[in-house]
Amino acid sequence: MEELTIWEQHTATLSKQLFLPLILSQDPRRGFGIAISGGRDRPGGSMVVSDVVPGGPAEGRLQTGDHIVMVNGVSMENATSAFAIQILKTCTKMANITVKRPRRIHLPATKASPSSPGRQDSD
């Protein structure tokens, strides 16, 4: 079997809600329940969900390791971490967050097809 990684795209609409941890929020009791890291100013360059707060709005919708592609229509590809955090902080009540997530799939091994008898390849 051959293993191949594909990228699935998911969009989650998150609403800020009252909960104790402060992550990506100006009000210490409100947020989307995620932490992010990366960006073009860090090794790897991708903006990644680095934590999902249990019981927070993102639980069950986003996963640690998701690559953030877009927030409310603003591209996060090649963005700095400071820019991404600022965009998330300006989302007053809701954020549409589009992520890409790697998924490994298994493909049956392919056999090289033998040349047809009586046929020769030439330049």
UniProtKB/TrEMBL annotation:
Residues 112-123 have a biased composition (Polar residues). It holds the Pfam family PDZ. This is Tight junction protein 3. SMART domains: PDZ. The gene is TJP3. It comes from Homo sapiens (Human). Residues 102-123 are annotated as: Disordered. PANTHER family: TIGHT JUNCTION PROTEIN, TIGHT JUNCTION PROTEIN ZO-3. Residues 21-103 form the PDZ domain. It comes from the Eukaryota.
